[in-house]
Design brief:
This protein is an alpha/beta fold and 258 residues long. It contains eight helices and seven strands, in the order αβαβααβαβαβαββα.
Length: 258
């Protein structure tokens, strides 16, 4: 029996994808394990802003950010306090775990936080890698964002010693995606220079903070993180948005402290 032209067209629609439409996307969660440079800040800390607060502005809504970073934590203390176990209790297959530590690992006078770059720092980072993989999630290492420090000639100076190199080496050994936020942020501070960088850090009338960010700084660092997630193919091009757009600082909000 021959088919009419309408029947042929109707059958074709059933088997050929319609241009401009895509299958339903499965929601994933991007977890952040880190310190105060990434953490959620509250109204009593404003205008201090963690870069994790701005990262959602660069991701599509089906990539949900769960910012588990906490002020003052190192790769060691985050584990010792049970925070990694709690995070792994909720992570699901195909989720992402972005790990950024070093600022507090460097504090050699505090045994509750200190790790040595080539031994205990790497050992603790492996706990995050192995934990994520055991749950079917993807671990991602992010070198620590740089502080604002310049030498007498106006050159941006690295402040993290061997920690970034130790993380890079571990990422290569474990075949984990590496977001080189340290190198990119250092280059950004160099381009901006001594005075302009003050507008990215938490400089106020009463405080000159060269470690933590204000809204423009958090947005700038979150942009670097999003770019690296795309470059390393942790996320696909459709997952990342607004990379080249201005993000209004008014989008940053600080909820009331609990």
């Amino acid at each position: 029996m021959s088919l009419t032209r309408r029947q042929v067209a109707a059958a074709a629609v059933g088997v050929v994808p319609i241009v401009g439409r895509s299958p339903a996307r499965k929601q994933r969660t991007l977890y952040i394990a880190g310190d105060s440079t990434a953490a959620q800040k509250y109204a009593d800390a404003a205008p201090e802003t963690g870069w994790g607060m701005a990262l959602p502005f660069f991701l599509r809504k089906d990539v949900v950010v769960s910012n588990q970073a906490v002020n003052g934590r190192s790769s060691k203390s985050f584990v010792d306090e049970g925070r990694l176990d709690a995070l792994l209790g909720t992570i699901r297959p195909h989720d992402l775990l972005v790990v950024q530590f070093a600022h507090n690992d460097e504090k050699s006078g505090d045994p509750t936080r200190y790790t040595e770059p080539w031994t205990t720092y790497q050992e603790h980072l492996r706990l995050y890698i192995e934990g994520a993989r055991a749950h079917g999630a993807r671990p991602v290492l992010a070198t620590p964002v740089e502080r604002r420090r310049f030498d007498a000639d106006g050159n941006a100076v690295p402040t993290h010693g061997d920690y970034p190199a130790a993380m890079r080496a571990l990422a290569a050994e474990e075949r984990v995606a590496l977001l080189d936020v340290e190198a990119l942020s250092l280059a950004l501070w160099q381009r901006l220079g001594v005075e302009a960088t003050k507008t990215y850090f938490n400089w106020t009338d009463t405080e000159q903070d060269n470690t933590h960010f204000n809204p423009p700084g958090a947005i700038a660092v979150a942009r670097l993180v999003a770019q690296e997630l795309l470059r390393t193919r942790v996320l696909a091009r459709p997952d990342v948005i607004r990379l080249h757009e201005e993000i209004p600082t008014s989008w940053i909000t600080w909820p009331p402290a609990s």
